């Protein structure tokens, strides 16, 4: 599912079996923090997080449940489980038959969906504010009591395998990205695709999904996020009623899986039926972990964010001007991206599509030359000012959307960031200097931390063209129900 996380994106996805009696004196739920826009965060009696963002401008509400589990929490041989379970969460509970969840939400006048990526899984409903309690009852039921027969799994796994074919196997560029990730990461679980390897999907069993749900869908590992025309205290009471009564359960131990130091360039040549070549380069870079008291590595990550936006963050940015325009153009498209905020390790990516008569190697060299130019000549304060202005505008614009507000709050929670991350980040990015951007351009783009994947086009058949046309309409970022 394509997702927009404002600034975080640029660092680049009835009838509960639980007790329904409202406690006459619910246990105190301390406010952990409150941001400038009025969002409040609580801890329910069972350890589940509740985040509420009042917005009275329209009589609507967004209800989301975020679970801190994604493909990075899988093990080899069981890739794709987080996404498979996302699909199975629509297949019923003891009181809601398969398929009825979506029908009930639609009957309430709402829209709903779900999404999975490396770091998390999420579920949401956008409904009239007066129907909030109904969707809380529904969602808490399937969170705690997801249940379905083996026959439902066997049907749905075939749907997921077809989804993999359409989004990845029949899409050369998506396949190339999959190959790049597999080559970039050795120990990190990021080397596995979110949708899973086809062989793992072939061998997956119903109990694999049930066990995954039992292990990770526990109160301590989830957050309920609600934004819209709501009363905070009433929402807190409803959350205790429907979610707080779910029994506590210990989380599995998450063992660190640090990536070994890369000691030389890695290359992947990938052959697939395609019209054009394509090149992707991945460089290992520092993570942005602490925005409250940034350390040296955090400051480098922010400077890398700035570098990425200077290179391709707006129409007419450096890569656009120098690689895709004018008589010396080498690329039909060129881009950069700094993925520095995640539960796992971070990368800076460069990529491009050769123009007619040019090669992938020429595009690769031209992309690296632009980074080297920044390392040698630096960037101007005017370029950084333009980037800051755009980020400020995008943050303000996103807050006009109730869904955008809930989405930001949930993604911040999943990544262990404070509620006011966007405001803090904007303030910190204003402190990044041209000298810092020049410095990271000089230090993080050598051969040893670089992985290159190149699509080598093969002749296209009519069947290939038809398959790729079908694939073109599918989402590419993460996976979605």
UniProtKB/TrEMBL annotation:
- All copies of the Peptidase M16 C-terminal domain together span 204-390
Needs which cofactor? Zn(2+)
Does the record's keyword annotation contain Repeat? no
Which PROSITE patterns has this protein been placed in?
INSULINASE
Keywords tagged on the record: Hydrolase, Protease, Signal
GO biological process terms on file:
proteolysis
Gene Ontology MF annotations? peptidase activity
Please state which protein family the record places this protein in.
Belongs to the peptidase M16 family.
Q: What's this protein's name? A: Zinc protease
Q: What organism is this sequence from? A: Comamonas odontotermitis
């Amino acid at each position: 599912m394509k997702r927009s996380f404002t600034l975080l994106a640029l660092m680049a996805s009835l009838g509960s079996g639980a007790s329904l009696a409202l406690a006459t004196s619910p246990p105190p739920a301390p406010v952990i923090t409150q941001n400038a826009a009025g969002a409040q965060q609580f801890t329910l009696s069972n350890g589940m997080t509740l985040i509420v963002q009042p917005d009275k401008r329209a009589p609507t509400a967004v209800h989301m449940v975020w679970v801190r589990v994604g493909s990075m929490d899988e093990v080899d041989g069981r890739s794709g489980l987080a996404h498979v379970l996302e699909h199975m969460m629509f297949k019923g509970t003891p009181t809601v038959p398969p398929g009825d969840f979506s029908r009930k939400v639609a009957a309430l006048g709402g829209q709903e969906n779900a999404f999975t990526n490396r770091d998390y899984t999420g579920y949401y409903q956008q409904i009239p504010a007066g129907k909030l309690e109904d969707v809380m009852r529904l969602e808490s039921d399937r969170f705690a009591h997801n249940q379905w027969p083996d026959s439902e799994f066997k049907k749905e796994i075939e749907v997921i395998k077809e989804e993999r074919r359409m989004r990845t196997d029949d899409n050369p560029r998506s396949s190339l990205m999959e190959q790049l990730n597999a080559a970039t990461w050795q120990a990190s679980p990021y080397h596995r695709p979110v949708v899973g390897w086809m062989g793992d999907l072939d061998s997956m069993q119903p109990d694999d999904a049930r066990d995954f749900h039992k292990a990770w869908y526990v109160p301590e590992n989830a957050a309920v996020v609600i934004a819209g025309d709501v009363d905070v205290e009433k929402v807190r009471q409803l959350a205790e009623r429907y979610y707080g009564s779910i029994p506590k359960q210990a989380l599995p131990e998450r063992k660190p899986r640090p990536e070994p130091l890369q000691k030389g360039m890695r290359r992947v040549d990938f052959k697939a039926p395609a019209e054009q070549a394509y090149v992707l380069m991945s460089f290992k870079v520092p993570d942005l972990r602490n925005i409250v008291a940034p350390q040296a590595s955090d400051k480098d990550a922010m400077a890398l964010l700035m570098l990425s936006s200077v290179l391709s963050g707006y129409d007419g940015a450096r890569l656009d001007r120098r690689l895709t325009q004018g008589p010396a153009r080498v690329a039909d498209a060129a881009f950069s991206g700094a993925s520095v905020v995640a539960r796992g390790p971070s990368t800076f990516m460069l990529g491009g599509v050769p123009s007619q008569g040019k090669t992938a190697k020429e595009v690769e060299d031209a992309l690296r030359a632009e980074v080297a130019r920044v390392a040698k000549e630096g960037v101007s304060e005017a370029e950084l000012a333009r980037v800051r202005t755009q980020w400020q505008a995008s943050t303000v614009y996103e807050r006009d959307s109730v869904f955008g507000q809930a989405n930001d709050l949930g993604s911040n929670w999943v990544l262990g960031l404070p509620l006011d991350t966007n405001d803090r980040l904007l303030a910190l990015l204003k402190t990044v200097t041209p000298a810092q951007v020049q410095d990271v351009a000089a230090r993080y783009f050598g051969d040893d931390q670089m992985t290159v994947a190149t699509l080598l086009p093969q002749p296209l058949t009519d069947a290939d063209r038809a398959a790729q046309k079908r694939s073109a309409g599918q989402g590419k970022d993460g996976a979605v129900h």
